[in-house]
Write a structure and sequence with these properties.
7-stranded parallel sheet; 3-stranded antiparallel sheet; alpha/beta; 14 helices
Length: 326
């Protein structure tokens, strides 16, 4: 039996609890995706389509030991969407610091145990969502076990998310191995029903791009006739996007996925208090054929989730197709 179950589409979790009723699909991983979910869960019916390429820390150990998808990013999204993020959410994110469990988070172990008990990673994620009273859905981007492979400017390649960050050279391109993994059926279903699609913020090469490299996900985003928004990072990321302007982020998405996958880019009009800001070159973005939307979105070091959510709800009413036809 596959860890995703005999049929990933056969196990259907309860529908997300709706705020405004706007159906939003967010693609990515890491802290950026968790942040945006904390704001959107209050105002929208949100589905997170999450990368499973993490191979470091607790996720990497469980992936290697049990042959299961990396649970870390999904765990963080479940905790972010929890109706009550107090005690249970904190427990799910709790990381052990001593003994044989050192480095493992409770939530990762819970997902591994549920997968072993139920024989399905899908059901483990869905049952965890019930325990946390999640407001929304969390879905892996692919039903396959995939690995991230990165190529650098001098031609050398490394395998695995952690190796990308540790290499020190600027990444040029990433791909998935196997190269054409199957998209998760519920991710495709969510994209077909979406009223707004959001990419980023987060690590460009290890969080934002991996879900888009799943062929079915990429094609579903390309077919969508709803606003497709890229939330640009506030800060340059050492080892990945040092020296990148906002337009470079979009250019890299187009380089990997083809042009036209993004309709609008959200940027912040104020800067985070720490780190090196991503320069916002509005002219470069407009030359790429995307609209630029700005607001005061930066907090101390990341986006303010509530401000960002309010802006995205306004953008859900935007019709990029009609604007192009005008």
């Amino acid at each position: 039996m596959s860890l995703f179950g005999d049929s990933p589409a056969s196990f259907e979790p309860p529908p997300p609890r709706r705020g405004s009723g706007v159906r939003v699909v967010c693609l990515g991983g890491g802290t950026g995706l968790s942040m945006i979910l904390r704001g959107l869960k209050k105002v929208a019916a949100v589905t997170a389509v999450v990368t499973t390429t993490d191979d470091g820390g607790s996720s990497g150990r469980l992936r290697r030991d049990f042959g299961m998808p990396a649970p870390g990013d999904l765990r963080s999204c479940l905790a972010a969407l929890a109706e009550d993020e107090s005690l249970v959410g904190q427990l799910f994110q709790h990381r052990f610091t001593t003994g044989e469990l050192a480095g493992h988070s409770f939530g990762n172990l819970f997902l591994a145990g549920m997968t072993d008990l139920l024989g399905s990673f899908d059901q483990a994620v869905s049952e965890s969502a019930r325990v946390l009273a999640v407001r929304g859905r969390v879905v892996p981007s692919t039903t396959d076990l995939v690995e991230l492979v990165a190529r650098f400017g001098d031609g050398h390649e490394v395998r695995g998310e952690t190796a990308v960050a540790a290499d020190g050279a600027l990444c040029e391109r990433v791909r998935l191995d196997p190269p054409e993994p199957s998209a998760h059926p519920r991710a495709l279903q969510a994209l077909e029903r979406a009223e707004l699609i959001v990419m980023g913020p987060g690590s460009l090469y290890t969080s934002t791009l991996p879900p888009l490299l799943v062929p079915g996900i990429q094609e579903a985003v390309r077919r969508a006739r709803v606003p497709r928004i890229y939330v640009c990072n506030l800060l340059q990321q050492p080892g990945e996007t040092e020296g990148y302007r906002a337009s470079d982020h979009v250019t890299r998405i187009f380089d990997h996925c083809g042009p036209g996958l993004v309709d609008g880019v959200v940027v912040s009009r104020n800067r985070a208090e720490h780190g090196v800001a991503v320069p916002v070159d509005r002219g470069g973005l407009r030359r790429l054929g995307v609209r630029v939307f700005g607001a005061r979105l930066a907090g101390e070091w990341q986006h303010d989730p509530d401000r960002l959510a309010r802006l995205l709800m306004r953008l859900a009413r935007w019709d990029p197709q009609a604007e192009r036809a005008a």
